[in-house]
């Protein structure tokens, strides 16, 4: 009797649509089983301790960097990005694994707090404990770097992990699991499950102790709604519409170079990629001329040919096209490229200027190699327009003297002054957004603590003659508390 074939799906090379791999579609019951195994492995992974976890993670990071060509090749094949970009992604991901491994113990160290006057006889401590099993759901645009920003920190904190990679990059997810299991001290510490949105939904419903999601705002809403039903907490890393503010005192040459790279690298498919520029009108013409000059030197193409690759997700091409069209219909001008730059699966660079703020192209995430450059009369206007977005992920500020002042007024999770993207590569700082860009943080101590819970432990060191937490409390004790509260202006606690 023929055995029934398990349902599967294909991963495609976006350059030519060739099938590059076939992966199982994990069902709800299979996802629950994987989570049950991860839960069974969790106590041992916790007990093994910081040093053993650190050694495991450092061994994993060495293995990854030693096989950088293998994993970079899979990344490039599944996303279409150039090999050099894929290699850079691997290197940055490895540095995050190293940071999480080396700092987990310190970040989770028990902290001692002041008990206050009223509780002066108590010691007050806060311990940090791993949550248990973390479900990680990843996107395709940085299929290694992005999920590793959750996986490595969750593992270092003592959790086991079940990871659902994007259906566009399952090969990267499977490679990640296989490489970990080559050095893992035992099974089920880190498991990859493959599938479409339904498999991600099953992970949300599986009873994991937290979901760390990276992807679009639309899916984040579905994930958060589903997790609410089981009180599963979530970290949500979503889309952005990152602004670039260019002051009159900026180094325009550097600002243009970094902004065009930020907007166009990875075919514009970066959550923290520059999408809109607010440039002081005094230097706007120079900025635009240089931006056009630079755009004319780069082009999209297959790995080995283009400066950046195709749109990885075929459906994104229509969104990019509609944003270019709406920018023009709303009164914007194409100064480089235009609707004809969209030659699926590739999109050649497009530079648009003076696009009204109400345009969809200014308001919504384009996720393509398009940059909108709008003139402003003051930095105050630039800040107001930057903050007017429903997104609040990252921002870039270019100014020789006002960088910090401008940065401190931006409503977003990360700002790079006279730079771009750098915060993503600095493992010690948190990464994440506000508003529709999400909540919670990955990376750094804040990112690591996301995968822990605080356990407050207070202990009587000695007994006071006055016992406030007792039915034996006397009227004179109440009077004393009120008197002390008045005297110390509420600083009793
Ligand atoms: P997406 O939302 O389409 O998919 C993300 C993941 O969610 C995939 O693994 C997908 O299979 C899964 N999924 C889909 N439906 C689901 C459901 N109902 N329940 C659970 N999981 C489900 O996003 P994408 O297209 O893969 O990624 C691009 C988006 O990610 C962009 O908006 C980009 O800005 C954002 N992004 C954000 C960050 C960040 O750190 N803030 C980083 C990278 C990408």
Brief summary:
This protein is of the alpha/beta class and 493 residues long.
Topology overview:
Blueprint: E1 8-12, E2 19-24, H1 28-47, H2 49-66, H3 68-79, H4 83-107, E3 111-113, E4 122-130, E5 133-137, H5 145-156, E6 160-164, H6 170-183, E7 190-192, H7 197-204, E8 210-214, H8 217-229, E9 234-237, E10 242-246, H9 252-264, E11 274-280, H10 281-295, H11 316-329, E12 333-336, E13 342-343, E14 346-347, E15 350-353, H12 360-363, E16 370-376, H13 379-387, E17 391-392, E18 394-398, H14 403-407, E19 414-417, H15 422-425, E20 434-435, E21 438-439, H16 444-449, E22 452-460, H17 475-487
Helix pairs in contact: 1-7, 2-4, 2-6, 3-4, 3-6, 4-5, 9-10
Bound molecules: nicotinamide-adenine-dinucleotide.
Question: What would you say this structure looks like, in words?
Answer:
- InterPro entries: Ald_DH/histidinol_DH (IPR016161), Ald_DH_C (IPR016163), Ald_DH_CS_GLU (IPR029510), Ald_DH_N (IPR016162), Aldehyde_DH_dom (IPR015590), Aldehyde_DH_NAD(P) (IPR012394).
- One of its GO terms (molecular function) is oxidoreductase activity, acting on the aldehyde or oxo group of donors, NAD or NADP as acceptor.
- Belongs to the aldehyde dehydrogenase family.
- This protein has 493 residues and is an alpha/beta fold.
- It has two domains: 8-238 and 444-452, Aldehyde Dehydrogenase, Chain A, domain 1, CATH 3.40.605; 242-426, Aldehyde Dehydrogenase, Chain A, domain 2 (3-Layer(aba) Sandwich), CATH 3.40.309.10.
- The protein contains 17 helices and 22 strands.
- It has helices at 28-47, 49-66, 68-79, 83-107, 145-156, 170-183, 197-204, 217-229, 252-264, 281-295, 316-329, 360-363, 379-387, 403-407, 422-425, 444-449, 475-487, and strands spanning 8-12, 19-24, 111-113, 122-130, 133-137, 160-164, 190-192, 210-214, 234-237, 242-246, 274-280, 333-336, 342-343, 346-347, 350-353, 370-376, 391-392, 394-398, 414-417, 434-435, 438-439, 452-460.
- It has a seven-stranded mixed sheet, with helices on both faces.
- Helix 1 crosses helix 7, helix 3 crosses helix 4 (83-107) and helix 9 (252-264) crosses helix 10.
- The radius of gyration is 26 Å and the shape is globular.
- The mean pLDDT is 96.
- Residues 137-142, 146, 164, 166-167, 196-197, 200-201, 204, 214-216, 219, 222-223, 237-240, 271, 313, 365, 367, 393, 433, 438 line the site of nicotinamide-adenine-dinucleotide.
């Amino acid at each position: 009797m023929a055995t029934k074939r398990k349902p599967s799906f294909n991963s495609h090379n976006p350059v030519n649509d060739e099938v590059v791999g076939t992966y199982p579609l994990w069902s709800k019951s299979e996802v629950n089983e994987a989570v049950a195994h991860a839960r069974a492995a969790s106590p041992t992974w916790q007990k093994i301790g910081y040093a053993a976890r650190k050694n495991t993670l450092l061994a994993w990071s060495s293995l990854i960097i030693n096989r950088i060509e293998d994993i970079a090749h899979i990344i490039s094949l599944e996303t279409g990005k150039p090999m050099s970009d894929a290699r850079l992604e691997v290197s940055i991901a490895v540095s995050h694994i190293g940071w999480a491994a080396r700092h987990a113990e310190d970040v989770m160290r028990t902290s001692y707090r002041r008990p206050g006057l009223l509780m002066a006889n108590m010691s007050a401590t806060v311990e940090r404990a791993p949550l248990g099993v973390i479900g990680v759901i990843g996107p395709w645009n940085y299929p290694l770097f992005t999920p590793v920003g959750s996986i490595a920190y969750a593992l270092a904190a003592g959790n086991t992990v079940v990871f659902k990679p994007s259906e566009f990059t399952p090969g990267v997810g499977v490679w990640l699991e296989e490489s970990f299991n080559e050095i893992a001290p035992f099974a089920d510490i880190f498991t990859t499950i493959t599938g479409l949105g339904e498999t991600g939904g099953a992970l949300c419903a599986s009873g994991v102790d937290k979901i760390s999601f990276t992807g679009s705002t639309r899916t984040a809403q579905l994930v958060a709604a589903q997790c609410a039903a089981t009180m599963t907490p979530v970290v949500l890393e979503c889309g952005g519409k990152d602004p670039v503010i260019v002051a009159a005192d900026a180094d325009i040459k550097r600002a243009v170079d970094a902004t065009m790279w930020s907007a166009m690298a990875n075919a514009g498919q970066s959550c923290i990629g520059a999408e809109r520029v607010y440039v002081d009108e005094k230097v706007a013409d120079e900025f635009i001329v240089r931006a056009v000059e630079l755009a004319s030197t780069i082009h999209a193409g297959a790995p080995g040919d283009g400066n950046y690759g195709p749109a990885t997700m075929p459906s994104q091409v229509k969104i990019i096209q509609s944003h270019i069209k709406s920018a023009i219909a709303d009164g914007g001008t194409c100064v480089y490229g235009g609707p004809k730059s969209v030659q699926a699966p590739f999109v050649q660079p497009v530079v648009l200027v003076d696009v009204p703020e109400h345009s969809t192209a200014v308001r919504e995430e384009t996720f393509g190699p398009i940059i909108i450059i709008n003139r402003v009369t003051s930095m105050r206007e630039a800040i107001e327009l930057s903050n007017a977005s429903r997104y609040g992920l990252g921002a870039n500020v270019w100014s020789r003297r006002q960088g910090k002042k401008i940065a401190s007024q931006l409503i977003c999770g990360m700002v790079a002054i006279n730079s771009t993207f750098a915060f993503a590569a600095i493992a010690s700082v948190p990464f994440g957004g506000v508003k529709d860009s999400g909540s919670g943080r990955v990376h750094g101590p804040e990112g690591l603590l996301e995968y822990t819970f605080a356990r407050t432990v207070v202990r009587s060191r000695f007994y006071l003659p006055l016992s406030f937490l007792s039915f034996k409390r006397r009227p004179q004790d109440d009077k004393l508390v009120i008197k002390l509260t008045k005297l110390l202006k509420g600083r009793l606690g």
